[in-house]
Design brief:
- This protein is mostly helical.
- It has three helices and no strands.
- It starts with 13 loop residues before the first helix and ends with a helix.
Length: about 50
């Protein structure tokens, strides 16, 4: 998927998971990830790159 949820988990990649959790605490990050612009950019990148 666009967010890599199936690849990153606390069990599979604990160090990456911890960094991701810390980034999500930064003010504005959650709002950005929920925005239509973020979703559009993510989809366009996925369509172009295939991952």
């Amino acid at each position: 998927g666009l967010s890599g949820e199936e690849l990153i988990s606390e069990e599979k990649t604990p160090a990456i998971w911890k960094v991701r959790q810390e980034i999500d605490k930064i003010e504005g990050v959650a709002e950005w990830k929920a925005s239509e612009e973020y979703k559009s950019i993510g989809k366009e990148n996925f369509d172009m790159l295939g991952y």
